[in-house]
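anyone seen this seq b4? input:
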Amino acid sequence: MDKTKNIINYYLYVNKLKYKLREGFVQIGITKDRLESVAEHIYGCLMLSIAIDSEYDLNIDMYKVLKMLTIHELDEVLKPDFTIRSGITKEEKEKIGKESVDTVLNSLSSKEELSNIIDEFNECKTKEAKFCYLVDKLECDMQAKVYDLEGYFSLEKAKEDLPFYGDRAKKIEENASSASDFWILYDRPKFKENEIFEKEQNLTLEQLNKVVEKNIKKGVKMKKVFNKLVRDKIPEIIEENDEYSLIRTLNDKEYEKALYDKLLEEANEVINANKKEETEEELADLLEVVRAIADFKNIDVSDVEKLRISKKKKRGGFYKRIYLESTCDQNYIDENKGCLLCVNNSCKVPTSEKMHDEYGKPAGYYCVGFKNCYVKKFSKK
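predicted toks r here
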């Protein structure tokens, strides 16, 4: 009975790893609806190690490797998944991890053996430990590449890790052309001159990365979900790239909603554009959506343009950077005995022709008695 209880207690602990997400992918802002769990990362490491052992004669104890990889994340059952952003030293991380491991393994008769295997992994001195360490890093980088090629990994988000890269940050940024490149370039030195991998020089992170990219571009079990309105020729472009698309024609109600969603999407892309060329492109997309909305509503775009010109003539455009903060009527001014539109009502002079110097001309506020009062001039809407 005690043995059964030990098994159940251990299982209930490690079962948590099925639902614990990989914190690095959470922090970096991967947009996929379902992110990889710690347990799935362990599975990936196991499969990767089996494949590598199949193709290369590495002369290592694979039974120990599989056991080590199976339990190498055991510390994360009860502790956070520390990342480069966590600001914690290696010694602190290992101490917290050791306490977590001891608790998780406490019910098992083989706790000492398993704890020693985890210590061996962390010390990274034996051939098996070094191999497992590289497989752990390689699986993470390959998963990052998969997210990247699926369109879920933002280059701008990846750059947020640069402050944590130390002296190598500038060089990594110069050589990275995609989001996953940042992680791959950061890990690359760990794969150089390692006795486990140098025997087979072809087994490098860069080459494995190329294989992943090539296979994904071929469409190996990869599915991208968009669920949004796209330009009319997008299905043809997808087909030209040897990919397949699932599309449908929207009814009027669906189409109207999709157009408004697209309007917001393109407006946000204009806001987030950094370079002039990007802004021009996003503005072009935004105008295309506006034209599509006009067409759907049976509105002639030329009539919209005439109306725009008419409104600009009567009410002006948005080029003088005028920012309306508040309005009030004469009764409100008389009752409060001052220029209520001045910030904090600091003037208290009802008919002064003095301009408030602290705001400067021409964007400054004038007292209400001034003959060219800025407030009076623009008070009528």
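Confidence is low (pLDDT under 50) at residues 339-381. The chain is about 55% helix and 0% strand. kinda curious what u guys think
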